[in-house]
Amino acid sequence: MAVSHASSWAADDDARTPIGVVYPQIGEPYRSAFAAIVRGIEERTSGRIVRLPLAGEAAPDSLAEELRNRHVRAVIALGRSGLKATTTLDLKLPVIAAGVLSVPESEGQSGTVVSLAPDPQLLFSRLKAFVPQVRRVIVVYNPRQNDWLIRLAREAARQSGLELLALESDDLKVSLKRYQELMGQLNVRRDALWLPQDSTAVDESAVLPWLLRTAWDEGLPVFSSNVAHVRRGALFALYPDNIELGRHLGNTAMSALSGGAPPRGLQALRQVLTAVNVRTARHLGLDLEASAQPIHLILPEQ
Questions:
Q1: 162 pLDDT band (50/70/90 cuts)?
Q2: Given the DSSP bridges, would you call strands 236-240 and 265-269 parallel, antiparallel or unpaired?
Q3: pLDDT digits over 82-130, tens only?
Q4: Of the four listed, 4, 12, 41, 66, which is most buried by Cβ atoms within 10 Å?
Q5: 49, β-bridge pairs
Q6: Which residues contact 261 (CB under 8 A, 6 or more apart)?
Q7: Taking residues 32-56, what's their average pLDDT?
Q8: C-alpha distances in angstroms, 2 versus 6, 17, 149, 155?
Q9: Starting at the edge strand that comes first in sequence, how are the strands of the sheet with 272-277 ordered?
Q10: What is the CB neighbour count within 10 angstroms for residue 58?
Q11: For residues 75 and 67, what is the distance between their CA atoms, to the nearest angstrom?
């Protein structure tokens, strides 16, 4: 992975830029998302960052050399390639990563990794505000992808006074069978279905359209960790507030520079915005204004 040199580096004072921000050069919409995260980082680091955009195939030696030359004392890695580049180097520096959904536990324990998966506690809080009668949340998930998230969800459900029914599936056919069995058993007056970001549990081309259509017909609330599902009919989702995420990463890096110990392992995303499908809300008979929850994206777009 070659490091493309930003022209502004020459003007930077090494003493003022001890935090390296490693991120991929990539097309839209990811380019804008990473740019917003970097702006948030800059707000909290008083311009003390050096940008290290990645291009091409793996070339970790050039990245290691740039980190040494710039006297970097902490690293923020964005995206899968940013995280891979920094973990390959086995840096003896604090590493704070974001912009990935999950990582193997062995990778996550070497630093702080903020997942793209919204914190279940925040999801359940919005759910109870929008659908006050809900008492149980059902989720189908692949433990290889989301076991860590379901552990958080169990505790979040307990604290929220909700029952969590979490069903494992490591195959799309099994997932579809789970949903088909569920649809005949759920009580729409007390149950809600959670769709995690899980490629095994939620197939976008076949399972999702059937699932949302059936939920609409049954009057079942469906909420998601993926904002794209709201465009297709899910009631609501939480999605990254990229500027605020950048501020959080900047604060964490500054704390590490001051001797603070950032939390290790995979962290659920708490810097989020809320998207709601108002057509679905009306269909379910919900009063969004009574929920007193901030809504940042209203769908379908008028």
A1: very high
A2: unpaired
A3: 998 888 887 888 999 999 998 876 666 668 999 999 999 999 999 999 9
A4: 41
A5: 19
A6: none
A7: 91
A8: 13, 21, 33, 42
A9: 163-168, 136-141, 191-195, 222-224, 236-240, 272-277, 297-299
A10: 14
A11: 9
270 pLDDT exceeds 50?
yes
* Nearest-angstrom CA–CA distance, 259 and 71: 17
Which pair of tokens denotes residue 264?
């290790």
CA 223 to chain centroid, in Å, comes to 15
Amino acid at the residue 28: E
Could you report the per-residue pLDDT of 94-106, keeping only the tens digit for each? Answer: 999 999 998 876 6
Query: What is the 3-class SS of the chain, one letter each residue?
Result: CEECCCHHHHHCCHHHCCEEEEEECCCCCHHHHHHHHHHHHHHHHCCCEEEEEEECCCCHHHHHHHHHHCCCCEEEEEHHHHHHHHHHHCCCCCEEEEEECCCCHHHHCCCEEEEEEECHHHHHHHHHHHCCCCCEEEEEECHHHHHHHHHHHHHHHHHHCCEEEEEECCCHHHHHHHHHHHHCCCCCCCEEEEECCCCCCCCCCCHHHHHHHHHHHHCCCEEECCHHHHHCCCCEEEEECHHHHHHHHHHHHHHHHCCCCCCCEEEEECCEEEEEEHHHHHHCCCCHHHHCCCCCEEECCC
Poorest-pLDDT segment among 27-31, 218-222, 278-282: 27-31
Six token digits for residue 22: 């490693």
Q: Compute the distance between CA of residue 164 and CA of residue 170 in angstroms, rounded to an integer.
A: 19
Please identify which residue in the block is written with the tokens 């070497």: 110
